Amino acid sequence: MSDDTQPETEATAPAEAAPVRAGISAARASLADVPPEPGAPKQDPILNATGVRRAFGGLVAVDVAHLEVQRGTITALIGPNGAGKTTFFNLLTGFDRPSRGEWVFDGRRADRMRSYQVARAGMVRTFQLTKALTRMTVMDNMLIGAGNQIGERFWAGLVPPLWKAQEAANRAKAMELLERFKLDRKRDDYAGELSGGQRKLLEMARALMLDPKMVMLDEPMAGVNPALKQSLLEHIKDLREDGMTVLFVEHDMDMVHEIADWVAVMAAGQLITEGTPDQISADRRVIDAYLGAHHDAAQH
Amino acid sequence: MDWHFVFSQALTQAIGPTMLVYALGAIGLNLQFGYTGLLNFGQAAFAAVGAYGLALAVVAFGLPFWWGILVGLACAVVLALLMGIPTLRLRADYLAIVTIAAAEIVRRLFRATVWSEHTGGSDGMRGFSDPFFALNPVPEDATWTFGFVSMESGRLTVDFGLFDLQYSHRDLWIMLIGWVLVAFFCVVLALLVHSPWGRVLKGIREDEEAVRSLGKNVFAYKMQALVIGGIIGAVAGFVFALSRANVQPDTFSTDFTFYFYVVLILGGAARIFGPVLGAALFWFLYNIFSQGLSQAITSGLIPSGAINQTQVGPLVFFLLGLGMVLLLIFRPQGILGNRRELMLDVR
Q1: Which residue of A has its CA nearest to B225?
Q2: For B175-203, how does the pLDDT look when each residue is reduced to its tens digit (9 = 90+)?
Q3: A12 pLDDT exceeds 70?
Q4: Which of B191, B199, B224 is closest, CB to CB, to A144?
Q5: CA–CA gap between residue A207 and residue B214 (Å, rounded)
Q6: Chain mean position to CA A216
Q7: Positions of the region Disordered (chain A) (predicted)?
Q8: Is B230 helix (H, G, I), strand (E, B) or coil?
Q9: Most exposed of A138, A171, B149, B278 (fewest Cβ within 10 Å)?
């Protein structure tokens, strides 16, 4: 994935672009000229969605006219409760079917794909309520994540020599990831024995077993204690450094400020604005959306 | 009271033909329920279509015996597809509803008077097992003695002193085939559940959404588990039909399915040998209660005013039910299960 190099933009190569955080400056640079308005076109969108609508009976939960997600960036999807963020997320990842709308992920039409096909195409998600496979070991949780496994076919599964070599390679890769997420000493424990925060880490590590191009995190900070929050933030930043694109749903504005390169704001099912975190914090419409349109009228 | 007789009967049954039927049916169910988490409440129907597929092919259509076996297996596959296609994309409980209903439909169809000239209606069918017993290598009239093992006119007796095991030459042939099948399916299941394929099944049992998010076609895996478990159920049906040399629709009632569940939970779900141990123990307990109570009444150990012979049957089921409740309270993981695994907090 690291060959997904950003198109070089002329101006920005500031001093603070240390080699360890090359991804962040590339990401920020790629978004420098994007106007802060809903549906703004990006240089190199990995995800390009148009007219995405999901209605439950008469209730329109999602009605996003246009959204592009720039490759190699961390994009936050924020909005008040009931804005349709998670529904939109479920649509993009194939866990729900849109009433209409189409989107292209990494050059392929993805709106007709089923959830497992979306994952195979390189867009892997996590869940708001962590889904650890509790009565399986941490290592098995990791191994199940690996893609294209020969031994996952029924007849091949019966003949271990066909898949032992691949299994060993997957195991080595899983071990590397577990070390990175500091879960290596837990590898033989049941996932159900991990703490809530460790499950979050495991879920993210497991998603990386698929070598995703884009990682979709649904409220990654929900229910995580402050100590672990910092470590999770660093892991998310590392995804960008490894060339992955991240889209995450979040409530916590501090976190959005800290890690997001770009923010998309939803309210009442629609995308109301986009911009850098600074632009968004200053945007009247966002404050209105969170606090209600007439909040200062009440003060007068 | 004749303890020798009671123990001999119970132990003879504990590894005999009927126990093998329960073991096979529960092995199929173990793949579906134990490993994949599929609530198949219609395992009796898989046994029924296996048994009837064989019987109808041989008796009504005059096909050779081995074709009958193939027909029975094909029927099980078709039944699994019929049950699975509409339900496996839905929540787990829909499969439970459809399988329990389908099992009743299957039983009623075999019972129906409309085509009773072919199926025999509620009387069932016989006359399909002769080709099977024609292959029996155990001679009908053998007589010999070798240490504590003796054969008298085709009847084998293994005398252990405290008890003895006795089987007819037909039982021996069924048991030879049955134990080979049990061993074969245990090996296949062990290979499967320790493969990446089996890992996906266990993942589906834990959380199918998570598995889907990792790029696995959950529907296809569930269907494979349902079909393979159903095929093993049909094999249980073959052994059942052949050991009785007849098929009768009412033997495939929902009770049959629930005995498979009792066997599986008793032995330990998601354990390779759980169904085998569970079947042996279940059938041993059933027989020792039945024979024991019956003997106790005959010998006057239980006064004849308290219970009589006709009440033994229901009382045995009462005792087995009580045993099941106690098992679920004190050892919910079954005999071979892992308590630590079962007690994990599912958040």
Answers
A1: A154
A2: 999 999 999 999 999 999 999 999 999 99
A3: no
A4: B199
A5: 7
A6: 2
A7: 1-46
A8: helix
A9: B149
| Whether B97 contacts B38, CB under 8 Å | no
Point out the residue among B203, B340, B341 whose CB comes nearest to the CB of A144.
B203
Q: For residue B327, is it within any domain?
A: yes
Domains parsed from chain A with CATH numbers: 19-132+209-290 (3.40.50.300), 133-193 (no CATH)
Q: Where are the beta strands (DSSP E) in chain B?
A: 125-126, 144-146, 149-152, 155-159, 164-168, 246-247
User: Could you tell me which of A267, A296, A260, A244 has the C-alpha nearest to residue A80?
Assistant: A267
Structural contact between residues A267 and A103, judged by C-beta atoms closer than 8 angstroms: no
Contact yes or no for A190 and B209 at CB 8 A: no
Measured at the CA of A33, the angle between CA A29 and CA A36, to 5 degrees, comes to 115
Q: Which two tokens stand for residue A156?
A: 């091949």
Pair of tokens at residue B196: 């990446």
3-state secondary structure at position A8: coil
Query: Inter-chain contact B215–A124, Cβ cutoff 8 Å?
Result: yes
Q: Answer whether B347 sits within 8 Å of A206, measured CB to CB.
A: no
Question: Using the beta-carbon criterion (under 8 Å), do B347 and A154 form an inter-chain contact?
Answer: no
What stretches in chain B show pLDDT beneath 70? Answer: 345-347
Sign, CA torsion A132/A137/A139/A141: negative
Report the amino acid identity of residue A148. Answer: N
Per-residue model confidence (pLDDT) at position B345: 56
B347 falls within a domain: no
ipTM of the complex: 0.89
The answer to whether the CB atoms of B197 and A156 lie below 8 A apart is: yes
Structure tokens at B248: 């009768």
What are the pLDDT digits (tens) for A227-260? 888 889 999 999 999 999 999 998 778 889 889 9
Bridge partner residues of A47 (DSSP): A69, A105
How many angstroms separate the CA of residue A131 from the nearest CA in chain B? 6
Q: How far apart are CA A32 and CA A27, in angstroms?
A: 9
Residue of A89, A291, A83, A126 whose CA lies nearest to A221: A126
Domain count, chain B: 1
Q: Show residues of chain B in contact with A126, CB under 8 Å.
A: 213
pTM of the full structure: 0.91
Dist CA B339 CA B52 (whole Å): 40
The whole-angstrom separation of Cα A265 and Cα A288 is: 12
Domain containing B264 equals 3-342
Within 10 angstroms of residue A174's Cβ, the number of other Cβ atoms is 26
What are the tens digits of pLDDT across the range A24-37? 888 888 898 898 88
